[in-house]
Every structure is written in C-alpha cells, then in structure tokens.
Design goal:
Radius of gyration: 21 Å
Number of strands: 2
Number of helices: 2
Strand order of the largest sheet: 1-2
Shape: elongated
Strand content: 15-25%
Order of helices and strands: HEEH
Distance between the termini: 67 Å
Largest sheet: 2 strands, antiparallel
Helix content: 25-40%
C-alpha cells in the first residue's frame, strides 16, 4: 500500500497564508491545548446593518407577543 505524500495533520497551504486585507488575531486553540492559533477577525458591521438587524429583531418580538 502506497503512503500518501500529504499528512492529514498538516494544514493545507491555503490555510497557512494570510489573505491581503484581512485582519487576524491570536487565540487559544479550541482543542484544549496551550497552543495559539491565528483566526480571522470578522469585519465590523456598519451602523445601518446593525440598525436593520435590531429593527428586524424588534419586529419579530412584536409579532410574537401580539
């Protein structure tokens, strides 16, 4: 049986590169080890997106209680 050249443990090449224009932060790994991992920071939502989401949530609560 032939051995595969890529190990499933190693990250893919696309995962190790940073994409331009994306902010990253270091966090503790989710698997409980003491290792740090680089995680993409989600972009900050604009005022209008946050307002529309809050408005939609208020409408759904209003419909639920009426």
């Amino acid at each position: 049986m032939a051995k595969s050249l890529t190990s499933p443990v190693q990250p893919k090449r696309s995962e190790t590169r940073q994409r331009p224009g994306v902010d990253y932060e270091l966090r503790m790994a989710e698997n409980g080890s003491r290792l740090m991992e680089r995680v993409e920071k989600p972009p900050k939502r604009s005022f209008w997106v946050r307002w529309l989401m809050a408005y939609g949530e208020a409408l759904s609560h209003h419909q639920y209680f009426m």
